[in-house]
Amino acid sequence: MDGWEQRQRRRDAGVEPPGYHCSWFPVALAREVTAARPLGVDVLGTRVIAYRDAAGRPVVQSAWCAHLGADLALGEMVEGAVRCPYHHWRYDAAGACVHIPTGDRIPPGARIAAYPAAEAWGLIWAFNGATPLFDVPRIPDAAPADLALEANLRGIRPVPPWVSVSNGVDFQHLRTLHNLPVEAPDSIEIRSHAIEFRMETAHYLQHGLITGTNVFAQHLRRDGADLYMLFAGAPIDPQRTRSFFVVGVERGAETAARLAGLRAFVEKLLAEDEPILNTMRFRAGVMVAADRHLSRYFAYVRSFPRAEPLDA
C-alpha cells in the first residue's frame, strides 16, 4: 500500500480531515498559460485546465467534461470556449456548456467547476473553494510593478506544501542547516489566514509572511541589497507537492546580474533543504522552547479551514 492509499484510508476512517486547505495554490507559470489551448494540471487530487479568456484573464476549471468525463486538456479553444475532444461539447469561462453539436437541448447540469483564479508574481493561482477567504499572496514591502521578477518551477516534492512552508518560521534550521547567522524574532503575528514577522537591525532586515498554508514570502536586506522571494506549493495529491519559487530585485543598474545572483542564492538554499524534506517522516514530535514559533505554526495549520475541490 503506497502513502496516498494509507492517507486515504486514514481519511475514510475519520482520523484525518477530508479535503485540502482553503488556500490560493499556484497552478502554473503565467507564461505557460495562453488563450490558444487549455493547459492540463494535476492538483488537489483532481485535474484542472488553465487558459486565458479574450481579455487575457486567467481561467481555471475542472478538466473533466460533464458529459462522459473526457479530459478537456486534450481539447481545443473554439470561439473562446473549451471544446471537449470527444463529443465537442463547449464550455465558457464560467463553466457553463454553451454548445452541443447534436443540437440537443443543453441540460442544466452541463457545467464544469470554475475555480476563483488570479495572476500574480508570474504565477497563475486558483483558490480551493467557491469564494476566496483572503487575498492572493503577496511579497512583503513589494509591488510587482516595481520589481524585476522571475518565476520558476522547482519540481515535485513528496510532502504536503505546509511541511515545506514550516521552514519560514523554523529559525533554528537557518543556523544549523544553512549556516546563516539569524536569530529568531521575539514574536510572530498569527492572523486568521496569515503569519507575519519582522526582524531589523542596522545591517539586516527580514520581513517574512506566510499566506494560507502553502506560501512563504520574504523581503531580505543584506549588505544594503534588497532581495524579494516567494516560495509556493500546490498539492498534487495528499503526499506530493508541485513547488514554485519567485525571485525579485528592484529595477536599476545590473538588474539581470542581481536577479541571477538571487536565483543562485535561493537555489542553494533549496538544494540544502530538499534532501531532508524529501526523505523525512514528518511528525510534530518532541518540541522544546526554541520551537515556540514552530509549535504555533503547527496549531495554525491544524485549525486552518479545509474543503474538497469543487469537482469532488
What does this structure look like?
The chain is α+β, with helices and mostly antiparallel strands and 312 residues long. The chain has 2 domains: 24-127, Rieske Iron-sulfur Protein; 144-307, Naphthalene 1,2-dioxygenase Alpha Subunit, Chain A, domain 1. It is 18% helix and 35% strand. It has 5 helices and 20 strands. The chain has helices at residues 3-12, 161-165, 171-176, 255-277, 292-302; strands spanning 20-21, 24-29, 39-43, 46-52, 58-62, 76-78, 81-83, 90-91, 97-99, 114-115, 117-120, 123-127, 147-157, 189-190, 194-200, 204-211, 215-222, 225-237, 240-250, 306-307. Strands 13-19-18-17-16-15-14 form a 7-stranded antiparallel sheet. 36% of the residues are buried. The model has no long low-confidence stretch (mean pLDDT 93).
